[in-house]
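Contributing new complexes? Match this layout with 3,6-anhydro-alpha-L-galactopyranose.
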Amino acid sequence: MRKTAKQAIYLGYFLAAYCLLGINACAEPNKGDEKDSELAQAGFPWDIPQTKPDRPLSAAMERLYDNYLTPRPEDNELFSSFKYTRLEGFDYRDGNGTISRRDPSKIIKENGKYYVWYTRRDTPVPPRGAKNSNDTIPSTDWDLCEIWYATSEDGFTWEEQGVAIPRPPKPTVGWRSVTTTDILKWKGKYYLYYQGFMEASGTKGDHCPVAASYADSPDGPWTAADKIIIPNGEPGTWDQYSIHDPYPLVYKGKIYVYFKAAYGDRPDYLVGNGLAIADDPLGPFTKHPLNPLFNSGHETALFPFKEGIASLTIRNGNESNTIQYASDGVNFNIAAVTQLMPTAAGAYIPDAFTSNGNGRGITWGLHHFTGQGKKEQKYSILARFDCDLSLDVHDPGMKNTQLWLGSDVYFSQGLSAKQREERMGGNEK
Ligand code: AAL
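Output block (do not edit by hand):
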């Protein structure tokens, strides 16, 4: 048979098939299309479905059901607003800037008392920058510091007990400053992890590794492990210079130390949090291959929640002001968006070390306010925050998505003179 005749026959078959299908599509609309059009005409229900409805959804409504525990934040166990209280018991020398307390640890309860550890600076003058610093003049608020601790019967009034970790002699890690500590209780012993500076912060950047000390009692005495516990990363890697905010939890039977590192140096930097895991509190620690685990979050503040880990992701980064959750303790997603979060939070986490796969959450802790005092007398203070991120509490007063902030709060964030000049009538870009 000639080629052209064959082609004509095949073309005829194709055209016939095409028309049959086409007619079918015209005659009997696809059931799916019909349903979509009916639903779309029906409009989204007034009584918001508590579970994802079977209907076409916009990206935002897909996210509402995929990302968040409940459609309304007021019902979301991982949403909370925050309330703040001044603490009693800490003296700040009338705010002259020579004493500062900041970066509190998690809180533990032992011997019927709450315990907290924190960075304490006690210097003859307030910080003067790296160029003007020396053996007694601090470069930053966390330079020339020791780690002290305090106890409390009620979480509101605290009694400063004294130094836990003094600065060790040169060249031991942390000889310049020991700061930003957190506590682990493991097999009846206590471990403090902290940043160990070997130069004034700001000399090259905020550069330090993590060191640790251990004790048989939360009241010490503490013995330094006298080695770097979590080393900086390889040259050129994200954590090559800074391993900050070491934050130990016990999860899946191992010691999970979350930490912060900063890509680049202040002020043009971004922060991210990573994870190092060990079977023994003094290591060796293995950094997680997926590090960095967070794309935002200046200080680390995490807690066991259900079978996973939740995080207060507070400052810096596209996902600041969020509460995040990872059912595996590694892959975090945004679980809630909130505001006025507690900076450098150290929560009271009764199950921080139980590793029972049933984390109950948190309701209070300590945190810090930096930049207190007059221009040349800057220091930080500890304060208390309260929230409802607990599976065992339902406090509607902590589920406020529309905080009323007085106009003075907004006016306190005013235009700079330069901005006002640029925006004066007719000058705006
Ligand atoms: C804090 C923490 C670390 C930094 C500095 C003191 O918020 O991130 O401890 O080094 O700032």
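Reviewers usually confirm one structural detail per submission. For this one: Residues 103, 142, 179-180, 195, 206, 244-245, 260, 298-299, 344 surround 3,6-anhydro-alpha-L-galactopyranose (CB under 6 Å).
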